[in-house]
Design a protein that fits this description.
The chain is built from two helices and seven strands. A hairpin with a 3-residue loop joins strand 4 and strand 5. The chain has a single domain, classed as Hotdog Thioesterase (Thiol Ester Dehydrase, Chain A). The protein is of the alpha+beta class.
Length: about 160
């Protein structure tokens, strides 16, 4: 199986934050944001694998900035690493205010793992990731390092308990 370029998995979707997806403060419900992240990540994984995928895990998620009613959530995802049948996807969420034109701001990010399935629902092999440009190599290195740091922070918090 030939390696597939990281860029072939890149997916970006947008969501306008409407009242049905907000809490009583007019901010995005965490569950809605997690849903968008799962969908965007799954699309990136399916594009890469050329097969259906299922979510195996989502790493730790911190919501660092609220998405306000009327803002646009921009969700970006790409496959940065693969196993035999699994795909690791980095998903970032930013918010932008279309009325003011303010630059977008980071709201959350996480790492999701998907498993590729064949037509019978059995896990199926996936290709390796090809890093064809310096930007793709940088994206992979950034994702690996961020995931490592995030997992270390979670472990440190558990040690404090």
């Amino acid at each position: 199986m030939d390696p597939v370029p990281l860029a072939s998995s890149y997916t970006e979707m947008t969501e306008l934050l409407l009242p049905n997806d907000t809490n009583n403060l007019g901010r995005a419900l965490g569950g809605a944001v997690l849903n968008w992240m799962d969908i965007c990540g799954a699309i990136a994984a399916m594009r890469f694998a050329g097969n259906q995928v299922v979510t195996a895990s989502m790493d730790h998620v911190d919501f660092i900035s609220a998405i306000e009613l009327g803002e646009v959530a921009v969700v970006r995802a790409y496959v940065f690493s693969t196993g035999r049948t699994s795909l690791d996807v980095k998903v970032d969420v930013h918010a932008e205010n279309p009325r003011t034109g303010d630059p977008d701001r980071e709201t959350t990010s996480s790492f999701l793992t998907f498993v590729a399935l064949d037509e019978t629902g059995t896990p199926t092999p996936v290709p390796d990731v090809a890093y064809e440009t310096d930007d793709e190599r940088w994206l992979r290195e950034e994702a690996v390092e961020e995931r490592r740091a995030q997992l270390q922070q979670v472990a440190d918090r558990l040690d404090e308990v």
